[in-house]
Amino acid sequence: xxxxxxxxxxxxxxxxxxxxxxxxxxxxxxxxxxxxxxxxxxxxxxxxxxxxxxxxxxxxxxxxxxxxxxxxxxxxxxxxxxxxxxxxxxxxxxxxxxxxxxxxxxxxxxxxxxxxxxxxxxxxxxxxxxxxxxxxxxxxxxxxxxxxxxxxxxxxxxxxxxxxxxxxxxxxxxxxxxxxxxxxxxxxxxxxxxxxxxxxxxxxxxxxxxxxxxxxxxxxxxxxxxxxxxxxxxxxxxxxxxxxxxxxxxxxxxxxxxxxxxxxxxxxxxxxxxxxxxxxxxxxxxxxxxxxxxxxxxxxxxxxxxxxxxxxxxxxxxxxxxxxxxxxxxxxxxxxxxxxxxxxxxxxxx
Length: 350
Ligand code: F6P
Hints:
It is a single chain. The chain has about 350 residues and is an alpha/beta fold. The protein folds into two domains: about 1-140 and about 280-325, Rossmann fold, CATH 3.40.50.450; about 145-275, Rossmann fold (3-Layer(aba) Sandwich), CATH 3.40.50.460. Helix content is about 40%, strand content about 20%. The chain has eleven helices and 13 strands. It has helices at about 15-30, 40-45, 80-95, 105-115, 140-160, 175-185, 200-210, 250-260, 285-300, 320-325, 335-345, and strands at about 1-5, 35, 50, 95-100, 120-125, 165-170, 190, 215-220, 235, 245-250, 265-270, 305-310, 315-320. The termini are far apart. 6-O-phosphono-beta-D-fructofuranose (F6P) binds near residues 72 and 171.
């Protein structure tokens, strides 16, 4: 048997741990040959690959990024010629199945390719922690740790200068990173994409704190917007490859521009950006990613294709890709962490 593995979409801490676990698990349990496809589906369409043996995946657990490279544009479903190229290479490589590690878009491709004869198993990844039917995605814990550290650092400088410090996190349309890091990093205000915020409420907190503590820390998710306001879009990219063409970013600066003329304190904005995606995964993410990878290997052995690995009630499981494709898990009003935040006096902006 020959099993392929590829990483598609944006990178995320823990990808190498998944590649390592898939490879080691399949090598140990059924002695199959593992083929690493380079740069996601681009490599499958172009026939770029390398053999992954025990040696190739040793010593990569701690490393950020993906040893295979990734692409968030390549889409073998974009045209008949692209599909034929990808299927042709899979056939000439003799791939019996493909383990596809990626986000939403990549999972949709995996589903489409399975329907066209290349049997895929999906492993979801994202720092955003917004995968439907999956309570925790690897990479999220690392991103939360990075943002938490940034908030801690911003606290001391904000305190020294008596400033309002705004820290913008990633997460797209889901506020999990901002919420968890905001609580862990002692933010005074947490603003989330799921609930439009009232700028006057935020201003009131800053004014009150100007009188007492003299500094305020605000943690804002990149998809957050004021009541009646627009989403802040940093730029639009072209739609080739089916990836979301919208690049979010800039909400921290927008809020700063609104707050500063209304306060006596200075306001500073920090956009953390891709530092949240890079670097070594936390021990928690290494363990979770290893479980995800090992479980994908079990699904391959069971022949459960067109399914995606998932974590539910603390246990690894599988869900048909078609059931979760295109859906996101966002924060709802009954999320217990919201109540915790509110009850300890964190302003959620509404
Ligand atoms: O989905 C993961 C994510 O990091 C989002 O939080 C962020 O909005 C987006 O990807 C950034 O994408 P890119 O790396 O293409 O700019």
